[in-house]
């Protein structure tokens, strides 16, 4: 596409008018749908369109999200959907939570971004809040924009503190897609195409197997390979809401201390109440050395992430070079205002308790559905409102996700695990909406039982 500044100016003018204009009529909505599909295909990623059920299952007019509130969003044509995807854990507070939006709007009128040279107060406020809500003696935080940046920071911090290079992580783990965090991932689909990743030794063990972690640490100690940290998700998210055995995290804590390595908790998806505790590790009363959080920290309004640690570990971030790790845009005032409001709402409304109660309502009913259709389901896993439906094969998984979408429920499988669907709604989803989801899922499963060709 040849450079054309005049066309770019005119195109941005037109879209600013649409942004400021609010709702649109049907004809303009359909034109925006076609334009959006073309823009994605020609300038973003054509494969996205082919994979997304919002396009493939939406009939003549693809679902183009337009506005939402709570656990419901509407597309540009006014079609309504119950959100059981929650932005892969970003929408704990639902769409456009008014308290978070209000805080960001107020800060926007003051100053959107800091100078990076003077003291910006909201960064300090948020850092103190993180110290007050994280487990144990965690005291310091650094803010970035995404989960993968938080993991990158956690990896770097662990290496600087221990002066060691090795890591032990889990098979099927998901920690992000930048090069360092990608090195920790437990899926070849993402690791293989980029080629050589992080230069240090990274060992993958089965998730939930504390014996395997201990064996790997023992081998590394015997052959002289130094391990900086064990990095794990409290509950594996991308793998399909996989809950480890109850002794896994307590044993990880004991083993890592015995071998003198750090324990990093990737709370990017599980943190801020998603699993029925404010932090996933709190199910097992474990305090990690380093904790990473993102997704819902911004209240579903602004992107923000953090990696956090105690004062002893954090010393290497301050001395001798306090600028050893920086980012120009991470932890800006707008993002911090959103996170401050998100923390306030989460604590005020005790959203982790809502997640626990709603999960306790959903899970037995989902287990009963799976038991009724054992030729369709393998299992149901999860805690709180991080739930995985594991089907017999990917074809059934696709039909289930597509059937729900056709019935106005948004869910998601994963690219590398299409037989698994995550149920991950906003924590503010109502009882009525939960019942609607269960009714529609039951209808989908009954249809699959009638029409699917089983081997």
UniProtKB/TrEMBL annotation:
InterPro entries: Aminotrans_3, Aminotrans_3_PPA_site, Class-III_PLP-dep_AT, PyrdxlP-dep_Trfase, PyrdxlP-dep_Trfase_major, PyrdxlP-dep_Trfase_small. One of its GO terms (molecular function) is identical protein binding. GO terms for biological process: putrescine catabolic process. Its cofactor is pyridoxal 5'-phosphate. Gene3D superfamilies: Aspartate Aminotransferase, domain 1 (3.90.1150.10), Type I PLP-dependent aspartate aminotransferase-like (Major domain) (3.40.640.10). The keyword Ribonucleoprotein does not apply. Transmembrane segments: none annotated. Its EC number is 2.6.1.82. Keywords: Aminotransferase, Pyridoxal phosphate, Transferase. It comes from the Bacteria. PROSITE patterns: AA_TRANSFER_CLASS_3. The keyword Membrane does not apply. It is an enzyme of class 2 (transferase). Belongs to the class-III pyridoxal-phosphate-dependent aminotransferase family. PANTHER family: AMINOTRANSFERASE CLASS III, PUTRESCINE AMINOTRANSFERASE. This is Putrescine--2-oxoglutarate aminotransferase. It comes from Levilinea saccharolytica. The lineage of its organism: Bacteria, Bacillati, Chloroflexota, Anaerolineae, Anaerolineales.
């Amino acid at each position: 596409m040849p450079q054309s500044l005049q066309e770019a100016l005119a195109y941005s003018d037109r879209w600013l008018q649409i942004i400021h204009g609010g709702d649109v009529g049907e004809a303009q909505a359909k034109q925006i749908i076609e334009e959006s599909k073309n823009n994605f295909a020609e300038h973003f990623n054509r494969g996205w369109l082919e994979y997304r059920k919002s396009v493939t299952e939406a009939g003549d007019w693809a679902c183009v999200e337009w506005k939402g509130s709570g656990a419901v969003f509407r597309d540009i044509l006014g079609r309504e959907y119950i959100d059981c995807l929650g932005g892969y854990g970003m929408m704990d507070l639902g769409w456009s939570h008014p308290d978070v939006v209000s805080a960001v709007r107020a800060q926007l009128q003051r100053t959107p971004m800091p100078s990076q040279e003077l003291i910006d107060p909201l960064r300090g406020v948020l850092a103190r809040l993180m110290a007050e809500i994280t487990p144990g003696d965690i005291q310091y935080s650094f803010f970035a924009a995404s989960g993968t940046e938080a993991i990158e920071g956690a990896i770097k911090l662990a290496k600087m503190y221990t002066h060691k290079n090795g890591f032990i992580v889990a098979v099927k783990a998901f920690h992000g897609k930048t090069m360092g965090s990608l090195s920790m991932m437990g899926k070849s689909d993402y690791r293989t195409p980029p080629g050589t990743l992080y230069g240090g030794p990274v060992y993958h063990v089965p998730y939930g197997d504390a014996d395997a972690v201990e064996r790997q640490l023992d081998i590394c100690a015997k052959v002289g390979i130094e391990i900086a940290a064990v990095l794990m998700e409290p509950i594996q998210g991308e793998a399909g809401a996989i809950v480890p055995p109850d002794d896994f995290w307590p044993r990880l804590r004991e083993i890592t201390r015995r071998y003198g390595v750090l324990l990093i908790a990737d709370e990017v998806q599980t943190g801020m109440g998603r699993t029925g505790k404010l932090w996933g590790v709190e199910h097992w009363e474990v305090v990690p050395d380093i904790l990473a959080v993102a997704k819902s920290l911004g209240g579903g309004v602004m992107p923000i992430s953090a990696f956090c640690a105690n004062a002893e570990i954090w010393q290497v971030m301050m001395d001798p070079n306090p600028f050893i790790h920086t980012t120009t845009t991470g932890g800006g005032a707008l993002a911090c205002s959103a996170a401050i409001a998100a923390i306030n709402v989460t604590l005020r409304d005790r959203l982790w308790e809502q997640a626990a109660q709603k999960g306790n309502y959903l899970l037995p009913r989902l287990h009963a559905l799976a038991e009724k259709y054992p030729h369709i389901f393998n299992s149901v896993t999860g805690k709180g409102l991080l739930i995985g439906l594991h089907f017999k094969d990917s074809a059934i998984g696709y039909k289930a996700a597509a059937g729900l979408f056709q019935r106005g429920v948004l869910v998601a499988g994963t690219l590398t695990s299409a037989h698994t669907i995550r149920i991950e709604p906003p924590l503010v989803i109502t009882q009525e909406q939960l019942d609607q989801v269960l009714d529609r899922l039951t209808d989908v499963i009954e249809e699959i039982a009638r029409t699917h060709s089983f081997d």
